[in-house]
Every structure is written in structure tokens, then in C-alpha cells.
Amino acid sequence: MARAKTSKSPSASDEERKERRRAANRRSAQKSRYREMVLMDELQKTVAELTKRNAMLKEENEAFRRDLVLLKGVMEERKMRQSMEQTSPLCQRLVNPLTKDTIKAMNMIPRA
């Protein structure tokens, strides 16, 4: 014999089950919001650290670029000196600073 269907209204156990499910969903949503907040905090810290590091690396890069320009100038000057030294003895005198011995020797030369 089949049971007769009662009214279509949910029973008390159905209501309790739905309420437990709603409460579980609220807890789950709250946990999810908390995890998202923690993740955002971590990402903000990471952004701040990377921004700071980027600024330091930019400064270091600029210092290296200045050093490079300076060293290129030194190299060019040395190349010019070597070229002038190989060209003639007169250029050697211009390139090398006058020493006391050279000045004395020049003073000994009679002038007309």
C-alpha cells in the first residue's frame, strides 16, 4: 500500500537541512573573503618590494652608464696618446708632461 502524499510544504527536517546548508555557505563565503584579503595584502607587499627594488636597480644602472661613458673617454684619450706617440717625437713632447730635466735641457739651448 502506497503512502498518501501529504501537503507539499517542506518538512521540519528539510528546513533544518536548508538552514545548515545556508550556514555552511556563509562560513565558506567568509573564509573565501578572508583568503582573498590575505592574498591582496601579500600582493600589495610584493608590489611595494618590487617597486623599491626596481628603483634601486634603475639607480645602479644609471651609475653603470655614467661609469661606462667615463671609461670610454679614458680609452679614447689613451688611443689618441698612443697614436700621437707613434706619429712623431714632437707629439710625444706634447703628450707627456714636461719634466724638470726636460725644462733644464730646454733652458740650456741657446736662443737666437
Structure commentary:
With 112 residues, the protein is mainly α. The chain has 3 helices and no strands. Helix 1 (12-87) crosses helix 2. It is rod-shaped and about 125 Å long. The chain starts with 11 loop residues before the first helix and ends with a helix.
Content-based structural category:
mainly alpha
Fraction of residues in H or I helices: over 70%
Largest sheet: none
- The number of distinct helices, counting runs of at least 4 residues, comes to 3
- Rg from Cα: 44 Å
- Amount of beta strand: under 5%
Q: Give the SSE string.
A: HHH
Label the overall shape.
rod-shaped
Key terms for this structure?
112 residues; mainly alpha
Provide a short characterization of the protein structure.
The chain has 112 residues and is mainly α.
